[in-house]
Amino acid sequence: MSARWGDGFWGQIGSTNIHNPTAINQPGLSDSAYPAARWREHGVFVNDVLALSPEWDLHLGGRHARIDRRFFNADGSTYGAYQKSRFTPSVAAVFKPIRSLSVYATYAEGLEQGGTAPLGTTNANAVMAPLVSKQFEAGLKGEVGQMSWEASLFRIAKAAEYTRSNADSSSTFVQDGRQVHQGLELSSSGKLSRELTMFGSAMWLDAKLADTADPTVSGKRPAGVAAHRLAMTTEYAPHGLAGWTFVANWSRTGKRAVTAANSVFAPDYDVFGLGIRHEGRLGGYEVTVRVSIDNLFDKSYWGTVYDDYLVPGAPRTAWASMSLSF
């Protein structure tokens, strides 16, 4: 993967009025600007499945990844550049006591980019080192009729990143201690009847910052991490209306900490949506038309929460699309 971001700016650039608009000049790069950023990720995956017996399978694999990341100042010079390469293994054991049930346990590691210090901190735009996460998971997968289900317990640990308050009322973005996520996830999907299909998931998450040098954040919930997430989608395809499917969905996100010290929380929220899908043929081609309304009741909520930042969620949005298969 290769990605490039252009220059960004965060700050006041002027004022105007929709009834008497005035032109606002293009802002120049300054200490309040996000720098241009560029990064590349390269990876090679290897996976194999060993059938140890009719009931036991062993999955072995790994990924060799390299991250190349750099930032550019206004004068074109670079800073915060780094390259990081690592092999991250994965292993899973699967036991099938009966055809419709699987019991599994997995271990996997992952390499991801470190964060960037936000504006307003003493080290604004500083680039943190890459993170290595370690994940353990154990669970069950099964089938009942035309429904499939899964239940799993998991634990994910990696280096923690947060904005630390200083004695002089300033703040510094640091990579310190560990961020540990432990939780339970349930999911189910399939046909409840010939006309009705359901997809549902639920996750309960106990997330904490641990072993941090700052005692005011140790044991607190990481910013932006919800304690639970629930989602359900139902599709109704009436037998008397061939090609037509009516869709309803709902999701719920629990409250999330805005600060590492958990002094402010964004409240939980529910979002609903409705849609219609039609599949047919046009000119000899398979055509799918979708019309949907997201956030049906125009709920006001904080869509993104991250370490002292709040971004509003999208308002009621209607959209349509058409896809053609050939």
Question: What is this structure, in a nutshell?
Answer:
By secondary structure, the protein is mainly beta.
What keywords describe this structure?
globular, two-stranded antiparallel ribbon, 64% strand, 14-stranded antiparallel beta sheet
In words, what does this structure look like?
The radius of gyration is 24 Å and the shape is globular. It has no helices and 20 strands. It is 0% helix and 64% strand. The protein is an all-beta fold and 326 residues long. It has strands at 2-5, 8-9, 33-34, 36-51, 56-72, 78-98, 101-112, 131-144, 147-165, 171-191, 196-210, 228-236, 244-253, 256-257, 265-266, 269-282, 285-294, 302-306, 309-312, 317-325. The mean pLDDT is 88. It has a 14-stranded antiparallel sheet with strand order 1-4-5-6-7-8-9-10-11-12-13-16-17-20, with no helix packed on it. Strands 2-3 form a two-stranded antiparallel ribbon. It has a two-stranded antiparallel ribbon with strand order 14-15.
Tell me the structural class. mainly beta
> What number is the mean pLDDT?
88
Question: What's the shape?
Answer: globular
Proportion in helices: under 10%
- Biggest sheet details: 14 strands, antiparallel
- Terminal residue distance: 28 Å
Strand arrangement, largest sheet? 1-4-5-6-7-8-9-10-11-12-13-16-17-20
Write the layout of secondary structure elements.
Elements: E1 2-5, E2 8-9, E3 33-34, E4 36-51, E5 56-72, E6 78-98, E7 101-112, E8 131-144, E9 147-165, E10 171-191, E11 196-210, E12 228-236, E13 244-253, E14 256-257, E15 265-266, E16 269-282, E17 285-294, E18 302-306, E19 309-312, E20 317-325
Antiparallel strand pairs: 1-4, 2-3, 4-5, 5-6, 6-7, 7-8, 8-9, 9-10, 10-11, 11-12, 12-13, 13-16, 14-15, 16-17, 17-20, 18-19
